[in-house]
Write a structure and sequence with these properties.
Oligomer: homodimer
Shape of chain A: globular
Order of helices and strands of chain A: EEEHEEEEHEHHEEEHHHHEHHEHH
Helix content of chain A: 40-55%
CATH class of the largest domain in chain A: Alpha Beta
Strand content of chain A: 15-25%
Distance between the termini of chain A: 16 Å
Number of helices of chain A: 12
CATH architecture of the largest domain in chain A: 2-Layer Sandwich
Number of strands of chain A: 13
CATH topology of the largest domain in chain A: Nucleotidyltransferase, domain 5
Strand order of the largest sheet of chain A: 3-2-1-4-8
Number of domains of chain A: 2
Chain lengths: 327, 327
């Protein structure tokens, strides 16, 4: 029985995963603020899940924890999880040693990529490549290639949010102009819309439907940004499917239909783009999907396995892969 | 002894590769026009190389042939090699059966990626990921990841030339606006410069140095296009190194310094981009490099190996990899 956590800025999603990678239990609760409260949120969820299954904590064989922050591959330490009030947190010490269960941490987008891939069942059905494109406050993607998480040479694979797709586009918080994230990041849209509403992107879509020109420009920009990210991902890495998730996808088909229109406009202009059938290769993660928590559980399972000796000391890539995803 | 060919629009580069992947002989000659002449060019080069080494044709164990066209993975058939006047050509029949040596074909950019990777010796030194970015008439990249050629789910990995990086940019031959290729493809620049000169890109650089505003705009666009391709490749796929090759790189440092300036401008604007150290990760293939012919020879060597049974019929990816690169 493997535990998986998706620790988000507002809530934490926890799952127990069985031998066939199926979810046997799931609980969600608000996330506490700051490292001690984050640890308490996770620990209490472990107890709650153990109780609901009528088992002991020690019967869990591994814990995987996805968090919005930087995680060194194969480690259990999260850094710069700004949304959680966590500067640095060693979850191996705080959770693993306390509960006597091995722990692995992972960046939440990468965990969601692994989980979306498992849910998609692509390993069984088609070519085993997928990207998960997270449309949240920021924009980032996670890649699964050859059935494994692709981290890249320096761990920055999937940072498509900061690719500029318009030299005259809006200024991005990163300092560049026209970044994909400046067009379609929830944070960037909220800043540019600049109204005190609970769900700025939803408000933009409502105002655009009512004919507000500024809202229409933001909505068009969002579609352009997401479509650009999809084009970058497929024309560069050529994954079979791009799965969209994250807060902005709560708009569901209202958002997706704009993106599909933008992709269709590109296909109408270019026979080459048309041949790629991009619109057919895009999917939305269902609302409330447990992808990130499931992915975290699958990644955490690697903590169980004994670590094999390195074939070559310089070959960081292979050891990363071994560590992150038992597929 | 493995043979490798890079069949280009003007000349064909042929190498013989020894057991340690070292080049033991090399010959270049003009390429004939049309399928029968292309076959004759290759066949005569085989004889010339055999004679120069004092061996029989039959002592060559495999032939790999890189060509600008579409090649089905693991096959010896090239389609749409427009620059060579070849619509479709089965090199297995035309060359392999005639000489009694197994043949594999490969797209020339992918062959060059494999060869550049082998020349770079990255498998021994650092993370084993590299992109080869071909700056020729068109723009395309080949990826080596985990020591293997990465083709993608549908064989279009590396088609970065047709990613738009400016919605108001120049019209591309593909139909979109602002494609990377529309900015920095040798063909697009020649069309927009529209002067009857032998080397349009060189002419543009000379005219730009003399202060011609149209030439300066084209030169700036070229730097923007190449830098955009590098940013797309690294921020999406995160390869360690991007190696530039192709006709446009004949300009050497005159071209590269403009690209490095453009990358530096991005890094100055964005601390995140700066942290990626993109300028340090770009290299030029030396003029006259045998990368494509060497890569073709390495790919061709896979034709020697007995084909193992498919683990799963749907798993095209794995069989592709097995077929293309014995690393």
């Amino acid at each position: 029985m493997r535990l998986g956590f998706d620790v988000g800025g507002t809530k934490t999603d926890a799952v127990v995963v069985g031998a066939g990678d199926e979810i046997v239990a799931r609980v969600r609760r608000p996330t506490g603020w700051g490292a001690p409260e984050v640890v308490r949120t996770i620990t209490e969820l472990v107890d709650e899940l153990a109780a609901s299954l009528g088992i002991q904590r020690s019967q869990f064989t591994s814990i995987g924890i996805g968090m919005p922050g930087q995680v060194a591959p194969g480690s259990a330490t999260v850094a710069h999880a700004v949304n959680l009030g966590v500067d640095e947190l060693d979850l191996g010490e705080a959770i693993g040693m306390a509960l006597g269960v091995p722990v692995r941490a992972e960046n939440d987008v990468k965990a969601a990529a692994v989980g979306a891939y498992a849910l998609h069942g692509m390993g069984r059905a088609r070519a085993d490549t997928m990207a998960y494109l997270n449309l949240g406050t920021g924009i980032a993607a996670g890649f699964v290639k050859g059935g494994r998480l692709w981290r890249g040479a320096r761990g920055t694979a999937g940072e498509v949010g900061h690719i500029s797709v318009d030299p005259n586009g809006p200024l991005c918080r990163c300092g560049q102009r026209g970044c994909i994230e400046a067009f379609c990041g929830g944070g960037a849209i909220a800043e540019r819309w600049n109204r005190a509403v609970a769900l700025p992107v939803l408000d933009v879509f409502d105002a655009a439907d009512a004919g507000d020109p500024a809202a229409i420009a933001l909505r068009d920009g969002l579609a352009y940004g997401v479509a650009s990210a999809i084009r970058v991902i497929v024309l560069s890495g050529d994954v079979e499917t791009v799965v969209l998730g994250g807060g902005v996808t709560a708009l569901g088909d209202r958002m997706l239909s704009r993106v599909v229109d933008e992709l269709a406009a590109g296909a109408a202009a270019s026979p080459f783009l048309k041949s790629l059938r991009l619109a057919e290769r895009v999917e939305l993660l269902p609302p409330g999907s447990p992808a990130a928590a499931l992915g975290a559980a699958l990644i955490g399972a690697a903590a169980e396995a004994p670590v094999a000796p390195e074939p070559r000391s310089s070959d960081r890539q292979r050891s990363d892969r071994k560590a992150v995803f038992h597929g």
